[in-house]
Write a sequence for this structure.
C-alpha cells in the first residue's frame, strides 16, 4: 500500500455516532393565556394534549 492510498482511505472513513440517552421529555412552561399558548404550540406542530 502506498502513502497516497493510505491517506485517501483515512480521509474517507466516517466516524461512528455515539448513542445519547434522552434525559428530558417534558418541560413545564408557565403562560398567562392558556388558549393563546396552546394555539401557538399547535401551530408549531407540537403535541398540546399531553
Amino acid at each position: 500500500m502506498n502513502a497516497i492510498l493510505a491517506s485517501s482511505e483515512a480521509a474517507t472513513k466516517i466516524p461512528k455516532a455515539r448513542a445519547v440517552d434522552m434525559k428530558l421529555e417534558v418541560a413545564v412552561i408557565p403562560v398567562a393565556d392558556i388558549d393563546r399558548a396552546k394555539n401557538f404550540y399547535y401551530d408549531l406542530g407540537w403535541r398540546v394534549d399531553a
